[in-house]
Amino acid sequence: MISFKNVSKSFGKKNVLNNINWDLYKGHCYGLVGPNGSGKSTLLRLLSGVIEPDSGVINFNNEDVFDNIDAKEKIFFLGDEPFFFPQSTVEDMKNFYKQFYKTFDTDIYNELMLDFKLSQNTKINSFSKGMKRQVMLILALASKPDVLLLDEAFDGLDPFMRFKLRQYISQAISEREIIVIISSHNLRELEDICDHIVMITNNSLKLDASTQEVHDNYHKYQVVFPENFDKSLLDKLNPLNITGQDRIFSVILKGSKQGTNQKINDLNPLIIETVPISLEEIFIYELEESTHD
After folding, report:
1. Engineering a disulfide at 77: which of 106, 109, 149, 291 sits with its beta carbon 3.0 to 4.6 angstroms away?
2. Average pLDDT in the 212-240 region?
3. Residue 52's Cα: distance from chain center in Å?
4. What contacts 258, CB < 8 A, 6 or more positions away?
5. How far is 184 from 28, CA to CA, in rounded Å?
6. Does residue 164 have a pLDDT over 90?
7. Alpha carbon 64 to chain centroid, angstroms
8. In this predicted structure, what is the pLDDT of residue 210?
């Protein structure tokens, strides 16, 4: 288990995270979302023990992660700019990580290298951005950490590689009950792998719920009303969004499905159709709502 307790962090006069309280449990994959500059990368760096919070504490299995060698051996942080030694080959980096991760699994490494058709004796600086990202993801998975932190992990990868790596990550979660946190702007991709969504806005946690709970709390309706319908009746429902005109509207409401269904039905539309709502739409409306808090 990972626990953030009253964690705050500033850089100079800029407050990045304010009083974060958050519990994460093994065997789950958390999608971390938020606007640029909201503190997602800072949160991951705090959890990896790279930087220290100004106040509060971050515990992993009841141990403070900052400056804790034992805890760091169980946490792998892959930032948005992968690090490699100058002139190093994939094998050089493999040997480097084997020194720090006692759980490093050469069989997993060899399997992934074979799957992705990478040469371990080629210098990494000759690789494309996507290939460099593949190398780091291979090293991360082969290290077999208990906690895997990925900042824009799939950036620069083609669709096939994204699919294969999602498979390996899902397998690690299922078989070893690791904790995975993925920070990404690709919300469609997070829907495919994450079972929890966490949103940071205004330096704080705005949303922390299972993916299913998030979807269960947002509802999108296509409705058709009789002639001369008064649109102000829709406004009184406190919708997150309304589009359309005259008699035909698309309406997004937040709340229980039973409650929102009742609100729509009380307006006596001629036609009601419930349509799927994407995580990307939910993110946009949550973000808009937070700006008015």
Report:
1. 149
2. 91
3. 22
4. none
5. 16
6. no
7. 23
8. 92
Are 2-211 and 217-291 the same fold in CATH? no
Strands in the chain per DSSP E: 2-11, 14-24, 29-33, 55-60, 63-64, 75-78, 147-151, 179-183, 196-201, 204-210, 218-224, 241-245, 248-254, 271-275
- Going by C-beta distance under 8 Å and a sequence separation of 6 or more, which residues neighbour residue 8? 15, 17, 18, 19, 20, 53, 54, 55, 56
Mean pLDDT of the chain: 90
Neighbours of 274 (CB within 10 A): 13
Q: Is domain 2-211 annotated with CATH 3.40.50.300? A: yes
Please give the average per-residue pLDDT across 66-71, as a whole number.
86
Q: Where are the domains of the chain?
A: 2-211, 217-291
116-156 per-position pLDDT tens digit = 888 889 999 999 888 888 999 999 999 999 999 999 877 77
Residue 140 and residue 148 in contact, taking contact as beta carbons nearer than 8 Å? yes
Q: Which two tokens stand for residue 239?
A: 């919708």
User: What pTM does this model have?
Assistant: 0.88
Four-way CATH pick for 217-291: 3.30.70, 3.40.50, 3.40.1000, 3.40.462:
3.30.70
Question: Average of pLDDT values for 251-261?
Answer: 93
Residue 123 DSSP one-character state: B
